[in-house]
Every structure is written in C-alpha cells, then in structure tokens.
Amino acid sequence: MSIHIIPINKLSAKALKGVIEEFITRSGTDYGTIEASLETKFKQVKFKLKNGLAVLVFDDETETTNIFLADNPILKKIDTVT
C-alpha cells in the first residue's frame, strides 16, 4: 500500500505548520456547528497531532497529505513509516 503514517517529529516546524494550514483551509473540513477562527483550528489540529489524537498521513501515489483522527478505522489498513 502506498499510504503511510508520518510521525510529526520527522517534519520541520515550518513543514508541519504548512501541512496543518493547508488541511484546515480545505473546502469541506468540518469543525462542528460553531465556526472557529483559523488560529483556533490550527491550535486544535496541532494539539491533536502532538498528543496522538490525530495522525499525519502521506499517500505516495497522489503525493498528498491528510490528517486523520487516530481512531479512524482506515488507519488499521496502512503501513507506518518511522
């Protein structure tokens, strides 16, 4: 499979910031019934990534990144990269 979990400590602070910013500004990203500021969304996603509640995923085939909640069942089907 060409999808991998990427530990966030493998990215520079600048790269991680860029990935999170791209993710939170995507069309269709849902944050619930109350709309949060971009700064709040950024902090929420970064907190979840740092605390293992979410993971960064890279797809070799499409060369895209995504962020999934750590308990997402799809994650059981992918390989990890260390």
Any chance you could write out the topology, listing elements then pairs?
Elements (H helix, E strand, L loop, with lengths): L2 E4 L6 H12 L13 H13 L3 E6 L4 E6 L9 E2 L2
Parallel strand pairs: 1-4
Antiparallel strand pairs: 1-2, 2-3
Helix pairs in contact: 1-2
Helix content: 25-40%
Evaluate the radius of gyration: 13 Å
- Average pLDDT, rounded to a whole number, is 86
Q: What structural class results from the helix and strand content?
A: alpha+beta
Strand content: 15-25%
Number of strands: 4
Task: Give the structure's gist in a few sentences.
The chain has two helices and four strands; from the N terminus they run E-H-H-E-E-E. It has 82 residues and is an alpha+beta fold.
What report would you give on this structure?
This protein has helices at residues 13-24, 38-50, and strands at residues 3-6, 54-59, 64-69, 79-80. The longest helix is centred in the middle third of the chain and has 13 residues, at 38-50. Strand 2 and strand 3 form a beta hairpin. The protein has a single domain (3-70), classed as YehU-like (Arc Repressor Mutant, subunit A), CATH 1.10.10. It starts with a strand and ends with a strand. The protein is globular and about 35 Å long. Helix 1 (13-24) crosses helix 2 (38-50). It contains 2 helices and 4 strands, in the order E-H-H-E-E-E. The chain has a 4-stranded mixed sheet with strand order 3-2-1-4. The protein is of the alpha+beta class and 82 residues long.
